Amino acid sequence: xxxxxxxxxxxxxxxxxxxxxxxxxxxxxxxxxxxxxxxxxxxxxxxxxxxxxxxxxxxxxxxxxxxxxxxxxxxxxxxxxxxxxxxxxxxxxxxxxxxxxxxxxxxxxxxxxxxxxxxxxxxxxxxxxxxxxxxxxxxxxxxxxxxxxxxxxxxxxxxxxxxxxxxxxxxxxxxxxxxxxxxxxxxxxxxxxxxxxxxxxxxxxxxxxxxxxxxxxxxxxxxxxxxxxxxxxxxxxxxxxxxxxxxxxxxxxxxxxxxxxxxxxxxxxxxxxxxxxxxxxxxxxxxxxxxxxxxxxx
Amino acid sequence: xxxxxxxxxxxxxxxxxxxxxxxxxxxxxxxxxxxxxxxxxxxxxxxxxxxxxxxxxxxxxxxxxxxxxxxxxxxxxxxxxxxxxxxxxxxxxxxxxxxxxxxxxxxxxxxxxxxxxxxxxxxxxxxxxxxxxxxxxxxxxxxxxxxxxxxxxxxxxxxxxxxxxxxxxxxxxxxxxxxxxxxxxxxxxxxxxxxxxxxxxxxxxxxxxxxxxxxxxxxxxxxxxxxxxxxxxxxxxxxxxxxxxxxxxxxxxxxxxxxxxxxxxxxxxxxxxxxxxxxxxxxxxxxxxxxxxxxxxxxxxxxxxxxxxxxxxxxxxxxxxxxxxxxxxxxxxxxxxxxxxxxxxxxxxxxxxxxxxxxxxxxxxxxxxxxxxxxxxxxxxxxxxxxxxxxxxxxxxxxxxxxxxxxxxxxxxxxxxxxxxxxxxxxxxxxxxxxxxxxxxxxxxxxxxxxxxxxxxxxxxxxxxxxxxxxxxxxx
Lengths: 298, 476
What we know:
heterodimer; A: mainly alpha; two-stranded antiparallel sheet; 10 helices; 3 strands; elongated; disordered N terminus; B: alpha+beta; Immunoglobulin-like; five-stranded antiparallel sheet; four-stranded antiparallel sheet; 17 helices; 15 strands; 43% helix
């Protein structure tokens, strides 16, 4: 600093009594070398003391395995656990009511609090456990065997009780003796290839798609003999057996001739796990109500 | 000034300031401004305004918990926050206007730091006496009298500080209820914490930091420096009239001297501890007390008032050249301030019009885009929308929803039989809405169809609409 002593006598911009300048000059603007207010220094020291105190009070210093915990015992994870416990305790009445209630009676008009609790909780549960197959928007995967839960077509029923049963026990899994179960025959080798082609055209015909009328005529007989017992004479399906409606616009595994033929030849065997082992009854009921509320519920 | 052999000092202690009592026009104006601003601050939360049984009766209430701002007959909902944004823009432009016209008039008269410091000075003078007594007390040993006076002063300051912090929290919840809860210990910890913080800052900033806040902590002096020009009004000393200064003793060549009698009155009354005769400086908050002090002195010695005065920078040149004084209004009314005024009033008028035009019902449409559409079993294409319905009237209302489009579309509501949904008074309701296009219809097969949702309050027939779009099968 002593290098930048100001010569007041030779600098017309400075007056007698002005402090020294730092020697820095920007476009002729000079900087006085005034002392700092002392309270700034104390503020600075106070910040250091505060900072040290903070690292003692809160988790801070990294060690080999984990950071120092801090004597206040602060932990974001513990806070989350406490918050969840607090939330659960706050909603214990709603949860117990949800476990006992007749599911059809939970409506936004009659039981708004319970309905809201179930839908919000169900949405969270759905995103955690169901979205892997059914998608975060519950639209499934088109023509790939993961059902769209938004539409009005239900293999095993779309009433709230039916949905609840499906979520609780699953479909065609080996863990739950009460799982929904059925198995379509794989027709390759069982019936001649011409009959497979014919029945595919019959299915195309009853679902209103482009088809060969002659083949479809022949296929009607094949259908009646091999398929009608599960899918019904009209092809409307049977929810008791999880047999899909073949006349509508919705195809779980695709509705093109190739896809239908694939289904007839090799059959399909969609599996859904049971959730009774992993989710609480309240969670299962919430997720059932949530799915029921997505636009397809009956 | 340090001699060249000594290293410069790195730190300097604060020089205590003991402003003398002063009276005059500007001091009176400051009393009035102080009384009005403090009255507004302390009294506002206690004003009642009847809004009916379902709403709070506090005239001014920032109800953060329920996300409503109440200002007498005006209610601001979260989606109307642009009103608050508009007010903030007006506040910004207002400061531009006042700064370019009147310099740091905000600092001098209505800044809370100035008002509360002024209040604390008043208490200090009342307890410890005027400038000379306070200087003596400052230098005195800590005897019983000094301790008594200091404790008394601090106690009064603390009482003001607690009242200041206390008043703040009343703006955020029902004031009478909160006051009761504060005394019985049942108020929310946030209320106590807020009061504690604001009490501490008021006590420290008003009692001890004072001008240090303005000089070192506040960004406003720097910002203002960029907004002022040579026509902005500041407090200045007419050195061409005052110099050379000196005591006007007879027979000592008094006729050689200027009007300044070097009585130091301007320095003694200054709350930031500067000498205005050194010229315009960063520390000056333009409180104008030195003008009052000097005018008083000039009257006593029989000279014209205004040795220290409100002036623009251009006045100096003008008056040095011996020209006539320019009216202060000529400085204030110039293109820059007029443009600020026009902008400021333009936004104000816009907000006022918007306030009277706004409806009592409103909606926000959020199309559900996961998935874009759903094919139903008969081939119908369905789009889903989450519509937030707002009933800002004070009665429960039945809303009818409808959709208008060039294409034939149908509407249905989740959980409702028809197109009607009830929204309780002063509440919002999130309704899931389905729009359906018949199989192979225009809307079902095209990529995108423009639609418009309408809501109607069946009780008042008020309507509101919002545009959205319908996505069909041709999206890929």
